[in-house]
């Protein structure tokens, strides 16, 4: 049996992240930012641990709501995903807010193989898929962008640079505007989205300028590029993982698609290979982390999240048992729920 080191590491890391997220400074920064920039922001993105948009845009953590899946692949036709996005948009609309959905794909300019594994490193294929997802969001939530504005966003991970793609084929590559005045960048940004409401523009410009600042800071400290190497030790299924942002450490599968078994098998294969090739310490093994997300302590929200987490844990365990039984002796289970307001993960024992 593997030791408890990895489970303990995850629990400690989550506690630390939750403490930072719930600190007075963080909560007040978020509250004030939200009051100044009320547009709700979501990001559809790949599970890749490098894609931390809060860091890339100098935005308070918790403002950009992430949806993560392998390759950033989503389909609004999936019943659960459609329902989750719809509730998120309706909640914003009920509060009188507009929503911007950043539909993202990623690549590396320095080396193709630092790009997206979910698309076999094919950035063109990733962009086309993402563009279609953006169009799908428009078909469902309105082509005229009255309330919901999906934006096609490329993320270049060597520099953490954002590439905004406009409605008219125009682009704004933040990495090539580092010396440009804010006024000129603003004019360029506006020309990309001529039908965007003024207050939405005002809420997106801080992301652009925040990204400029972040790229400059990373250049100053000469941050090395993250080398992508398989050394994942965690298979995470479910929701509520935005405290888990490590490169090459976790494979995250959102519970959205019809086919969960396929991605779980693929991920389990990667983990087994990592053990066999000694990329990860054998004594630590791997962790199957199943998580449910809840908003309210009162009512049925929390108990339902617990049931979801255990159901996912059982499904993932059964999938691994039948597809890759060789991995099972190395697997430790960690099942629990994440509080949306604090990001705190609470482990939960299976009920008989
Ligand atoms: Zn990816």
What does the secondary structure layout of this molecule look like, with pairings?
Blueprint: H1 5-22, H2 24-36, E1 40-46, H3 53-56, E2 64-69, H4 79-94, E3 99-107, H5 123-141, E4 148-156, E5 161-165, E6 171-173, H6 182-192, H7 198-220, E7 234-238, E8 250-253, H8 261-276, E9 286-294, H9 301-323, E10 331-339, E11 345-347
Helix pairs in contact: 8-9
The structure holds zinc ion.
Zinc ion (ZN) binds next to loops.
Protein name: Carbonic anhydrase
GO molecular function, one term: carbonate dehydratase activity
What does the model show?
This protein is α/β, with parallel strands linked by helices and 352 residues long. The two termini are 24 Å apart. It is built from nine helices and eleven strands. α8 crosses α9. Helices cover 41% and strands 20% of the residues. β4 and β5 form a beta hairpin. The site of zinc ion has 7 residues, from loops.
From the structure above, extract its key features:
alpha/beta, binds zinc ion, 352 residues, 20% strand, single chain, globular, 60s Ribosomal Protein L30, Chain: A, Beta-carbonic Anhydrase, Chain A
Task: Write a short abstract of this structure.
With 352 residues, this protein is α/β, with parallel strands linked by helices. Helices cover 41% and strands 20% of the residues.
């Amino acid at each position: 049996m593997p030791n408890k080191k990895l489970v303990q590491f995850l629990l400690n890391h989550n506690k630390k992240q939750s403490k930072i997220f719930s600190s007075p400074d963080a909560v007040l920064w978020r509250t004030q930012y939200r009051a100044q920039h009320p547009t709700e922001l979501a990001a559809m993105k790949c599970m890749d641990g490098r894609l931390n948009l809060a860091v890339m845009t100098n935005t308070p953590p918790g403002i950009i709501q992430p949806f993560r899946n392998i390759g950033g692949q989503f389909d609004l036709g999936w019943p659960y995903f459609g329902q989750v996005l719809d509730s998120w948009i309706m909640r914003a609309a009920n509060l009188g807010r507009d929503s911007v959905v950043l539909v993202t794909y990623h690549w590396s300019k320095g080396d193709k193989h630092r790009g997206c594994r979910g698309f076999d490193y094919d950035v063109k294929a990733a962009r086309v898929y993402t563009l279609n997802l953006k169009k799908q969001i428009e078909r469902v939530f309105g082509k005229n962008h009255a309330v919901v504005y999906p934006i096609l966003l490329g993320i270049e991970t060597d520099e953490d640079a954002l590439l905004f793609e406009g409605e008219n084929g125009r682009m704004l590559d933040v990495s090539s505007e580092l010396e440009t005045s804010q006024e000129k960048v603003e004019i360029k940004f506006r020309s990309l989205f001529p039908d965007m409401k003024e207050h939405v523009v005002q809420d997106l410009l801080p992301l652009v300028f925040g990204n400029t600042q972040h790229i400059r800071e990373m250049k100053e400290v000469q941050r090395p590029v993250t080398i992508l190497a398989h050394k994942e030790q965690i298979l995470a299924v479910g929701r509520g993982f935005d405290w888990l942002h490590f490169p090459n450490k976790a494979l995250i599968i959102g519970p959205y698609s019809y086919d969960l078994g396929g991605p779980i098998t693929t991920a389990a294969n990667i983990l087994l290979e990592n053990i066999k090739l000694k990329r990860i310490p054998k004594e630590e093994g791997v962790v199957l982390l199943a998580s449910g997300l809840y908003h309210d302590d009162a009512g049925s929200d929390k108990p339902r999240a617990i049931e979801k987490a255990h159901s996912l844990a059982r499904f993932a365990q059964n999938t691994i048992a039948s597809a890759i039984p060789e991995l099972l002796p190395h697997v430790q289970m960690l099942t629990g729920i994440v509080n949306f307001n604090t990001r705190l993960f609470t482990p939960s024992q299976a009920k008989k």
